[in-house]
Write a structure and sequence with these properties.
With 662 residues, the protein is an alpha/beta fold. It has 21 helices and 28 strands. Strands 12, 13, 14, 21, 22, 23, 24, 25 and 26 form a nine-stranded mixed sheet that branches. A seven-stranded mixed sheet has the order 3-4-2-1-5-6-7, sandwiched between helices. Strands 16-9-8-20-28-27 form a six-stranded mixed sheet. The termini are far apart.
């Protein structure tokens, strides 16, 4: 019995076209994913999402040891067509969710890595994301799975969910008896949690086994079933109560308007197009990525903190997802200039060097995420004389954001009906009869079932968004010719500013960081400052003198930044309603209880995606994928804690939940 044979059973019982969501506990043979994907390609009307829960120690070591997808494909060429994108992916030993999307997001693997109870309890829960059936890997030791964990699994499951596991296949009589007793005890606990348990022999016909054991399960008393279901519903209710302050909101079928033409809106467009939604994209510029996403080269690497807090964990997951999407688009033939050459981060003064040391010493980072390097290693990695210690991000690099944006839109155009409205500056939104309308002067667009505002530094221009706590920071990047020792640079450098290896004989260096700048004109002083930052970072290094900005070749954009450096993603908060309710519910224990148990006011059908700051290449694509999943009634690739971290209403709700004054 494998998860692929379980899928064969599930698809025969599916009566609608919603996504099939299956859960797996424990590690399986990676070949199973290839077999499962090959089967799923024959059922294109259903998206298939497999949520795989594994711990982060021995199982993960085994996974990486066995996950040589290329050799698996060579052994089983019949499994291919086409399997190549899967060979490029690598899971990293970090806690949380890592999402891999294939076949235009019709086949999704969500890896939940870490303590089982913690990962189960962290899931953002909606009725549409409940898991249909579960499979326990045949190599999994069932004895450590407690009744409490099974109740958490039950909470996340559909009411008639089966739990499949394999009967003992041990040949040694004593060992067989021991495993059999373990399975019997496990089945008893799972039944108590309300599951229909299906124990399968490896060589038996799956459907025959299921029919036989379903009859057995039906002998369970109606009272027992009612009790277990009531407990499951109570746990589910408790879980959803925790989400009230940072609500999830999906929309009914209907067209969706996206305002914006940069990296965030393009990735959202692609994620929604993969789910077959009807889309309209409104961009005020004549070309895509004409604002902050228009740089020639942008650095791709995670934001880490010494304590590896939720923000740091999100950036690691998001960085890996962005890397996965980039590789998938590139594999499909889309032209995206990039080089995953790694990123070297060094300090430029005592404070920044102390910060780097705190990051390195504060957490045991997976070597694929970050490694400490000495002066000699830094120089070797960079290809130029660095003479400084630092952090190296081996999976990082640089991407051309404009080409990344264009590729995402081009891919979306091949998947769904997408109308692109260029030179269209939407200046007003209005909701009438539960539908949204957009306005450019006197011209009206709509109706739309929902609207997503993802327009970069103009995010706060609308009445519904003007109170969002975001600030615009001007950034001027200098383009310099590749010459002398500078041309030897072979990794991205980040210190007091950043510098990229050359592409088309040009390096990018910068950038300035000026809050609420009055204009976006070229600034000679900022051009000179960009070079000075490199001299400050790497003093007395000859290659720095080869950075020549005399051509005044530069580009200026505005990044929207939040105070806590997390992007904004989710339903647009109704600030007027929050403030009105605050007049009644404030500064008492009762008010805290009110805000904890009452859904936060939001604009139905209106969403926010923005505030990506200077790390949008890393943080934006996963935020877009999470928002698309939320809109389309699918399981999210982020935890509920991360939903709260990214929520556009978090600045207000964090205070209200603590009983503090706004």
């Amino acid at each position: 019995m494998t998860v692929s044979t379980l899928f064969r059973y599930v698809k025969t019982t599916k009566t609608d076209h919603s996504a099939i969501v299956l859960g797996q506990i424990g590690l399986s043979d990676p070949k199973e994913w290839l077999q499962l994907r090959a089967q799923h390609q024959k059922l294109p009307s259903h998206a298939l999402i497999i949520k795989i829960f594994i711990d982060s120690s021995a199982s993960f070591t085994s996974l990486n040891k066995n996950a040589d997808f290329q050799s698996l494909i060579e052994e089983s060429p019949a499994l291919i067509p086409p399997m190549e994108p899967l060979t490029q992916q690598k899971l990293i030993n970090i806690n949380g969710i890592q999402r891999l999307c294939f076949d235009n997001s019709r086949f999704i693997l969500d890896f939940h890595i870490g303590d089982l109870f913690t990962q189960l309890n962290a899931i953002a829960l909606t009725d549409s994301s409940l898991i249909a059936h579960w499979y326990c890997d045949e190599q999994l030791d069932l004895s450590p799975i407690t009744l409490s964990q099974l109740w958490q699994i039950a909470k996340l499951s559909q009411d008639r969910a089966h739990l499949f596991f394999c009967a003992s296949q041990r040949t040694d009589q004593a060992e067989h008896h021991c495993v059999l007793q373990t399975q019997t005890d496990f089945e008893s606990r799972a039944t108590q949690a309300g599951f229909h348990c299906i124990k399968l022999n490896m060589n038996d016909d799956v459907e025959t086994c299921i029919r036989t054991q379903v009859k057995k399960n039906q002998q369970q008393s109606a009272i027992d079933r009612e009790i277990s279901l009531s407990e499951r519903l109570a746990l589910r209710h408790q879980h959803t109560l925790k989400q009230q302050a940072f609500p999830l909101m999906s929309t009914e079928e209907g067209s969706i308007a996206i305002i914006g033409g940069g990296l965030a809106s393009a990735n959202l467009t692609l994620s929604l197009a993969s789910r077959q939604r009807r889309l309209h994209l409104f961009c005020k510029d004549p070309t895509l990525a004409a604002q902050a996403s228009g740089n020639k080269q942008g650095a791709l690497y995670p934001l880490l903190t010494p304590e590896n807090n939720p923000l740091s964990q999100y950036f690691q997951q998001a960085f890996l997802f962005s890397r996965h999407r980039l590789q998938s688009l590139h594999q499909e033939g889309f032209s995206i200039a990039h080089d995953l050459c790694g990123v070297l981060h060094t300090g430029h003064d005592i404070r920044s060097m102390d910060r780097i040391n705190k990051i390195l010493n504060g957490h045991a980072w997976d070597p694929d995420v970050a490694i400490a390097v000495n002066k000699q290693q830094a120089t070797h990695l960079a290809g130029v004389d660095i003479d400084k210690t630092g952090i190296f991000y081996p999976l990082g690099g640089w991407i051309n954001p404009q080409e990344y944006t264009q590729a995402a839109i081009d891919k979306a155009l091949s998947l769904t009906q997408l109308d692109i409205h260029m030179n269209t500056h939407i200046d007003r939104l209005a909701q009438k009869n539960s539908q949204w309308y957009l306005y450019q002067g006197g011209r009206e667009y709509g109706p739309f079932a929902s609207v997503v505002i993802a327009n970069g530094h103009t995010l706060t221009q609308f009445k519904q968004t003007q109170a969002l706590q975001l600030s615009g920071f001007r950034g001027q990047i200098s383009h310099v010719p590749s010459k002398g020792k500078l041309s030897d640079l072979k990794t991205v450098l980040c210190s007091h500013g950043y510098l990229t290896p050359h592409h088309s004989n040009t390096h990018c260096v910068g950038a300035s960081y000026i809050k609420n700048a009055p204009d976006l004109d070229f600034c000679p002083q900022e051009q000179a400052d960009n070079v000075e930052k490199m001299r400050h970072s790497y003093p007395n290094k000859p290659w720095v003198e080869d950075i020549d900005v005399s051509d005044n070749d530069a580009r200026v954009g505005v990044r929207m930044v939040t105070r806590d450096h997390a992007p904004m993603m989710g339903p647009a908060p109704d600030i007027e309603q929050i403030l009105a309710r605050y007049q009644t519910h404030q500064l008492t224990p009762q008010s805290r209880q009110y805000w904890q148990s009452t859904p936060a006011p939001i604009h139905q059908g209106l969403y926010i995606l923005g505030g990506l700051g200077s790390r949008g290449l890393s943080s934006g694509p996963l935020a877009a994928e999470a928002l698309a999943a939320m809109i389309c009634h699918q399981p999210l690739p982020i935890s509920q804690e991360t939903v709260a971290l990214l929520s556009p209403n978090r600045m207000w709700m964090r205070k209200l939940l603590k009983g503090k004054a706004l």
